[in-house]
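Encode chain A's predicted structure.
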Amino acid sequence: MGDRPRTVCDIAQAVQQGEVTATEVLEWHLRAISRLDGDLGCFQDVRADTARAMAERVDADVRRGEQAGPLAGVPIALKDNIMVEGEPATCGSRILENFVSPYDATVTERLRGAGAVLLGRTRCDEFAMGSSTEHCAFGVVRNPWDPQRVPGGSSGGSAAAVAAGLVPCALGSDTGGSIRQPAAFCGITGLKPTGGRVSRWGLVSFAPSMDQIGPFTRTAADAALVMQTLSGVDARDDTSADAPGTAGLDALQAPLKGLRVGVPVEHMSDDNDAGVNNAVDTAADALRSLGCDIKPVHLETTDLGIACYYVLGPAEASSNLARFDGIRYGRRTSRPDLALEPLYAASRSEGLGEEARRRIMLGTYVLSAGYYDAYYKRALQVRRLIHDEYQRLFTSVDVLLGPTVSAPAFRFGSHADPMSMYLCDRYTVTANIAGICGVSIPGPMTEREGVRLPLGIQIQGPVLGEDTVLRVAHHLQAASDWHLASPPISD
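Encoded structure for chain A:
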């Protein structure tokens, strides 16, 4: 397809300057989806006609010399748990397969206002519960680096779509690593913003105290541009941070000289894949050459994160998913003449998958009488310990550098044991528990069984520290070519 613009920044600039039309950009990506998505399964639904109408409006604005918006003509896909008025939002679950969104999420409204072209919805683990996108009721998503491997989860469809070039940007949600982990497995940039930085209005809740919407892109610069549109206070979201939006592209250029970078010793475990630790060491050397002060630090609560997360997350999920009962919301069993409680049980058993049921039962258990103090209350206390440790650490360092995941993408079915799947998020869950921000970017590649696979480097920052973590990511990407590698299945 020649030298057509491929990044968010390049597409927006080319459309705004009249070098290409939004319609041309859209058709390039629709053809890529037609050719490749049958093998990958990234999209739950592609809304070509609606997207064409949006692209035509952008082109009309450009022809009239009007402002087409900072994301003019940029095709963007949305994870299937983000509301788009008049379109389905299944959350990867049979219980919502016929649900149609009655309104736009705030992020959807903001993307429309910025001139983006909403292309469709991407597959995810059911109700965002998973680390592999194997738990989607409508089909698995395959990793474009190796279709026998998972793309990560729960936002696997969004990550794989960006990695394969089907879209330059997709939104996901991150409750315990569901943006950063699939970004690492697919070799792209994935940003988990500070809790409250991006409005959750219109995001179907999993665990509201930890859920956060963020972008998948090819580069940190792309993520910064998208975040200018997404971030900012929203009166409809009570958890929305009363803070100005992110600074965007201008903040990326400031030099890194003197920046204090901590490398958590607990994240550089001997149990990690050797390539993972080498990738972090290589990134640390690159930052040192850019004038950063690199030093080891301790995150002693690292080993508490998974246990804490898998009490708090399921507890919140058991409450949130109670509404999907076949009466108020969701699919109702076709069995006639059932009394109310058997109707609830049958509808939920038929409509919810194994992982969703597991987490609902776990959450109900830890909230039940006699167990609340032993589990849920104790987890809240551990949450405070994790939060306070990060707060103290960010008085002595500006950002943290470490691995996103302890190994590259794994093969389908190799993590059938739930605990092995949960441990994939060991280095990501604590950011959600503490409410801080983090970004995963590609590091040096590794090789498994003759296949080249990406590894993820995680940069974590304090509350409202997105500008800093994206600046570090941008300088790392400017000093390396790790993010430029293309998977075998790509446009």
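The two ends are 9 Å apart (CA to CA).
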